[in-house]
Amino acid sequence: MTTLSPPPGSEAAAPSAGAADDGPSRPRRRRILPDRLRRAGLPYLLLLPALVLELLIHLAPMAVGVVMSFKELTQQYIRNWGEAPWTGADNFRIAVDVNAPVGEALLHSFLVTCAFTVLAVSLAWLLGVTAAILMQESFRGRGVLRALFLTPYALPVYTAVITWSFLLQRDGGMVNHVIHDQLGLTDSEPFWLIGDNSFVALVVVAVWRTWPFAFLILMAALQNIPKELYEAAQVDGAGIRQQIRRITLPSLRPVNQVLVLVLFLWTFNDFNVPYILFGKSAPEAADLISIHIYQASFVTWDFGSGSAMSVLLLLFLLLVTGGYLLATGAGRKRDV
Amino acid sequence: MRRSRARNAAAVTLAAALTAVTAGCGGGSTTDGEGSNDNPKELTYWASNQGTSIAHDKKVLTPELKRFEKQTGIKVKLEVIPWDSLLDRILAATSSGQGPDVLNIGNTWSASLQATGALLAWDEQHMKKVGGAERFQPSALAAAGAPQKDPAALPIYSLAYGLYYNKKMFKDAGIDEPPATWDELVKDGKKLTGDGKYGIAVEGGDPVENSHHAFILGKQHGHDFFDPSGKPTFDSDGAVKAVKQYVDLLAAEKIAPPGNAEYAKRESVRDFATGKAAMLLWQAAATSLKSNGMKSDEYGVAPVPVQAKGSGEKGTRSMVAGINLAVFKNTDNIDGSLKFAKFMTSDEEQRTLNAAYGSIPPVKAARSDKAFDTPDLKVLREVLSSSSAPLPQVPDESKFETLVGNATKELFADAAAGRKVTTASVKKELSAAQQQMRK
């Protein structure tokens, strides 16, 4: 690494040291590329493998998906989708026509997904940050508690969510046993896997699944805040609340910016949790867009329509993500 | 400044990478033709999950596949695939061209999968190699592809819906014989409901089960879910009546427990076997009931009730249910695949396999075996040959199962939550389902 990119200021010293070691008679090795060019090109060289893989794994299928979205791709053509007839923007027109059933259902699903994402990400972050702050203090059993908190993140998603589906069954499920039979909180045993409550069930399981990640990241970030800041604040008479408001949260800001983005994208696109919890046909109240697109593509065998919906979703996510990155990037510049 | 631009570029790339997961999947292409014999000593077989578990299936099939290997020298690599992922796997195999040589398909999917062009057509020449079309029960063969076309598969297991009833619970309630009409079923169901027990168990959260009952009841109301040209007619009066009548078992008549609205993992079979419900509409349930601890003399089987006794096609009591065996057109062991199909549809294998799974052989010669003379199979055999109809063999059939089945599931959920299920609400759900079939 160092031969490729010597630290600034060491360029002059390095060859002369080498010359001294090898003796005066050895000719100085010629560099193929001038230093400036090497320095400028190095980041791109290092990015190259990632870019190639990115192209193969993501961008090429994305391009294929975009092409498919302009085709009438039903089961007649899935063996050779290149032969499927072009439909122009029909698939898109139908997907965004909110006065017709397909568009109306897609809009409903989109709104459900937005509500789900906002709730699940906020709760996961709130839980994560609270737990991370509490875990900073050293106390007996802290290690065990930390490990316990991380369990949902470490468990295989299928095992965890299928267990939830058993717990949430109306008859014989542990959740109803506790809230209805033992605590008497409800008049009758509620349904969690069908009907309106399925949305609540989905949020609970998603938060349970994602908050340990927020906890893990924030815990690591908290370790990096210098203790002196808190000591100084204490000397100045700042209480715990003030310390959190004035020191902890501002220091966590760069980490939070990335964390919230990652949680947003994971949650918005989450397929595993709803699929395992509800199967191929999610209840209307919990009809997340990932399952909705899966249904359009793989259950009703209209891959063109499903692709159009995917492209629309991709554009939305790019827009939101791009806007978010620009906004937070601008914020960072102001800080500097 | 330059740094921040580079960082922004990297961030946008990262964003693209993270969001790319939503992009569609790639499409494959395969060559046409009738397969090859490039790999004559090996076959890959995807079996559907017929037994009580995947392990059970492996136990049943492995000795038979060994026998085939001994006869032909062809090794069969077996993979048993659960029902809930079988269709996805078949679609993936179809689009990628990387599938098995031979596979099981639900017979209701035959026309839909036939439309993909991925399955070998059983024309006269291929049929000859398995002994001719006349060896099979005509109704079973009718559920192997669209009418006027060569079948896309061969029937290997036949099933029919029957009304399973708990003898002791009927006796205790003073009911002498199983109901023959739906009115009688509701009347009996009310007598049997009480003390935490219910008249009937339904699998209300399972779209496929729902669609089958909608189809049978639809036929009884003189309705098909597709018109003769193959266009969907999901929300016509007959369809609305059929779906409402089925959901009303829970919604209006209250002879099915509300909890059944979320059943989708065969919980209704368990509830019937454990005496929580006195009746069950199921296809050849003997093996499942046994695995749930119910003895064969504890239950009886009667034909599914009709609207009124003796009424032609309206007397349909079951769809022609069953499993077919198909060959992927692009197999690299076409001769071996045909030999394997012949082996699986041979009289002897048909007896062995159908006896193991509690199903009925669609091969006529195998039906006479004593194993299929049990009281329940006798009833189901009679239903299959005299009062069953194949689900519409149209390319959109699999969409019907999903969309109408889902609509019914939503209506069950409404009913369980205490909302009223009316003719208007049923029609609204079915209309929405039909609109999804926009093409």
UniProtKB/TrEMBL annotation, chain A:
Residues 110-324 form the ABC transmembrane type-1 domain. Residues 1-30 are annotated as: Disordered. It is found in: Cell membrane. Keywords: Cell membrane, Membrane, Transmembrane, Transmembrane helix, Transport. Its main location: membrane. The keyword Transmembrane helix applies. It is a multi-pass membrane protein. It comes from the Bacteria. The chain crosses the membrane at residues 40-60, 110-135, 147-167, 199-222, 251-268, 307-327. PROSITE patterns: ABC_TM1. Residues 10-22 have a biased composition (Low complexity). SUPFAM superfamilies: MetI-like. Belongs to the binding-protein-dependent transport system permease family. This is Sugar ABC transporter permease. It comes from Streptomyces marispadix.
UniProtKB/TrEMBL annotation, chain B:
Keywords: Signal. The keyword Signal applies. The keyword Signal applies. Pfam families: SBP_bac_1 (PF01547). Residues 1-23 form the signal peptide. This is Sugar ABC transporter substrate-binding protein.
